[in-house]
Amino acid sequence: MQTARMRSDEIFTLLRNDALYERPIAERHRLVFYLGHLETFEWNLICAGLFGLKPVNPEFDRLFAFGIDPTSGSLPNDSALDWPRESEIRAYNQRVRAAVDSCFDRAAREKMDESLFHVAIEHRLMHAETLAYLLHGLPYSMKQSTVSPRPSETEPVSPRQVRMPDGTATLGLERSGDSFGWDNEFDAHTVHVPAFEIDVYKVTNDQYLEFVRVGGYEERSFWTASSWDWITASGIRHPKFWKPVDGGWQCRTMFGDVAFQPSWPVYVSHAEAEAYCRWKGRSLPTEAQYHRAAFGTPGGSERPYPWGHTPPQDAHGNFNFQRWDPSPVNAHPHGDSAFGVSDLIGNGWEWTSTVFAPFAGFEPFPFYPGYSADFFDGNHFVMKGGSPRTAARLLRRSFRNWFQPRYPHIYASFRCVQS
Ligand SMILES: [Fe+2]
What we know:
Elements: H1 2-13, H2 31-48, H3 58-63, H4 86-109, H5 115-136, E1 161-164, E2 167-171, E3 189-193, E4 196-199, H6 205-213, H7 225-234, E5 242-245, E6 248-252, E7 257-259, H8 270-280, H9 287-295, E8 349-355, H10 370-373, E9 381-384, E10 401-403, E11 412-413, E12 417-418
Helix pairs in contact: 1-5, 2-4, 2-5
This protein binds fe (ii) ion.
């Protein structure tokens, strides 16, 4: 929890002056909401929910309880003045943290079930990542950092595919095991995956540039009806993380614009990734195909990580807060899978063609029934892997992320497959 707090606190130290009251993404809350939300969530879940403690601030416990799902359709219209002062929220946070710490101690003494504590820690770490997306969209003048947006360099990428033989993939987590997982990770089950070909690397900015140059955003046939309506209505003509400059492009990093980075993975919405695949006559991998390429081996056994059994280390990929931005897709050969597929964990979540839905045996967490179930609506797609801002503990094989298809603000990449 201390590490998770360090990660979420770090985000707020990047904000200048009144940036805390900004709303970088129209469909989401102002940043100030998140300053209170993490403590409120932990208070409601653990201090009030598990131990029945008396509230320190019932108004805040309600105000900061729930985020906004951008699929709801309507935009929030609160003003900055509707929110409490930063000093009041910070005082509340201090009291809640002390209470949460005592609850952790008490639970350890009484050898209580640890699930709720894992939920609190992982919830905070996930917000450390989603807060990074929000800050990415803020004007640079509202952020302060000593990090220079200097990109790393590698050999140019030579895109190619590898043939995956017919085999099986194990998805999900054993309920009888002792590792923590969210409700949507259960139960474990095996899927047969017919042979297919998969890109060795994530699709790069350079590859995607070709799609933009040939008029991919103007060609109706590459898009589904709803995606076409979306790019037409919103005037989207290129990835959100690119900026048009003098007839060329720059990359919008967390702390400044840099020269176009041909070897970085392109970050796009599911709709844009799908359109690219259609142009190529290929498709996005299913969740099972991703598992097969990442965790399968030519001998038939499966491993917890693409590189084997060792827990994630920096050399395996761009994750766990090492960087604020992508690295070249060929920068981490130590992370290659047994089939020679690169960059599967970190450096950008990977879109799949799999609609987010429960595995057989799914049971919602009684203390957080809507965590996954609210999104089993046929309009969210599974993402696997992780981004530069994904904590190491969320890189477990069974972890599933999901997002709606027409939301261009997240660190989401993709690769193509052919059956
Ligand atoms: Fe939350």
